[in-house]
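User: If only I could read backbone structure tokens as easily as an amino acid sequence. Those tokens are not coordinates but codes from a learned vocabulary of shapes. Could you go through the record with me and say what the backbone is doing? Here is the record:
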Amino acid sequence: MVLSSCSSTRYVPEGELLLKQTRVARGGFSDSHLSRNDFVHLQRQQPNERLLRFPLKLKMYSSVNRERKTWWTEFMQRVGEPPVIFDSLYADQTVQRMQQFLVNNGHFNSTVYYVVDSLRRAKTMRLVFHVNTGPGYRYRNVSLDIRDDSLANSLNDWPARTLIRSGQPYNVGILDAERARVTRRMQNIGFFNFRRDNIEYLIDSALNANLMDITMIVNPPRDSEHNRRYTFDEVYIFPDERPGRSKENVFDTTIYRMPNSRTDTALQNYYFIHSKPLRIKPHAIVSKLLIRPGETYSLNNVDRTYENLWDLRVFRSTNISMHAQPIDTNNPQYLLNTSIEVQQALTWATEVNLDLTTSSGLQGTAANVALRNRNLFGGAEILSLQLRGLVEVQYLLNKNRRNEFGLDLINNFDVGLSANLEFPRFIVPFNFQQTSLHRPRTLVSVGYYYQLRPTLYNRQTINTSFAYSWRQPRFSHVLFPLDINLVNISLKPAFADTIAVLSETNRRLRYQYDNHFIFAARYSFAFSGQTNRPVSFNAFRFSIESSGNSLFLLSNLLNAKKNDSTGQYQFFNLPYAQYLRFDADLKRYWYLTDNQVLVTRLMGGVGFAYGNFEVLPYEKGFFAGGNNNIRAWPLNFLGPGSYGAPDGSKIERVGDIVLVGNIEYRFPISGIFNGALFVDAGNIWLRNDSESFPGGLFEWKNVPNDLAVGGGVGLRLDFNFFVIRLDAAVPLRDPAKPNGEKWVISNTQLRDFVLNFGIGYPF
């Protein structure tokens, strides 16, 4: 309210005008495939940035007296934004850019001009651009003229693949994209010297009805009558490339022989030129090369070789160059010699990073300190000794709610020590051709983890896992054939007494806090459409996990005896979990501007416990609440369904089903300060009815009534390499309240807010 009363024109000089609004006038687009939105990014001068139509930064800047040199004045003017003063030079430049844009899109007879509209408020104006596109030109006939006979067969499918189609509007961007497409196509089938300037367009626009005929002309290179198809020949690898290497006089040559494929009996030579003993085995490098002697030159294979060598993570830099061999007139062959220069990174290195963990049973901000060896056995294997600390930080302003849940500032603390070994290939008990296109890796891990819930329990876990991972453009896969966890839980005395009483009527609690053994396999798949440009994209993750089936089968085959007290089969004197679990996460990033984004997420999961276990083990159950989920509730203290815990009950809620939706608007404030507005909704449910959790059973018809809704605001400090986050969230709808009283927004007070601290974005 105070900022609203401030004058936006306080620091607008006399005789100048504040640019309050710009727009492109309606009309003039009736005969065009373009719209007014296509012209927004062409404007050279934009009004002051607005937050929900309110010029917050301008108001902050104008709210203080510049003549008073106080820290508050300097802060408000640094965080704020000075008024944007209309400049006719920028307006003229915008007109020129719009006219060029119209020409590039086939509107050769367009007109653009601007009008300055004075507004009622003094010193303010609106800039209106009037655009009359005129008729746009379209292609009538599209043809190809190949003036190099050596390319005729390679382009015989051009009519079916070309980006230029009859009836399309003229567009310079499409013409450039087609030139790039054909150029890369030629370079991928051996034409090493083919360049973009081999292609030109002949356009005849002297037709009626605003039509044009277009011909793409493919010329031979300027220094030859024909393009030539090249073949990779000798490959030289310089594995110890470094500054000053060329000054050394003594070099050794190691020849490594390897077939191009599994069915190929002929061995190809790869030459390692080095001045020091080889630190990395030749096979580790050669197996990642798609540049192979005797195969046709392909630019795609060169690019993928770059990617594969970089993915080894043992090289600081890589450079690939190719040189054509002199042509023998008696036996003309077009051959390329390839030089691959790599500079190795330090073998031993330390690494410190912060990340976000959202897995079930382990949520919060993690700090990792790792000691890495990037070439343990000489084959680019990576050994990582890692110390990991994780904390879930939430603070409830309402003292009564803090006491109700028994929560302090730190809800959850974890520490772990692990050893991880990565091989840049698949380790399998049989022989098969490993394609380096998918960048395969084998991961072996052993670790110990300690989890502390200060008022409830501590949990110790020993984990051993074996996994395969591989990646494709935008896709990644991880397969765990083996994932073993031994879990030991020690309850705090007061909490143990509570569990002892409640578990007499609630079998879920007995399983939830019992020691157990997990022998699982899982697979996860992820997709991301993110690019280097701020454009909207989707991201998706899916995983499936199964546990205990092989042990259950083995127990039956061996006629093993069940434990008399629990009625369960055991392994290592621990009952083993048996379940099937699915979960998925779909996100959509909507870029409103280059630095304002609307992020939406829908997360869901379901688990089925059976056989040797009646419920999902705690680590594999689903939770709601916490600073990365539904931020208006403490972690693990929401749900299931419409269940409302009795006063003084501090039992964590674990569900078989979860459904969570989030929407968050992220925007810049000033410098490293960013803001957010968000709404979270969702809950967990049980698959089977339970007397201990009335209202917790999942039924589709009850889902809308069982949804918890929270909202709030966030402040983020973005240091590029990590983000510090503070979110303040408040319950808007509480499913535990009686019908008719679930919406609690009208009763919201400041003390009802929950403060969430974290590193990184919540999703």
Remarks:
- Confidence is low (pLDDT under 50) at residues 358-363.
- The chain is about 15% helix and 40% strand.
- Residues 420 and 445 are 4 Å apart (CA to CA).
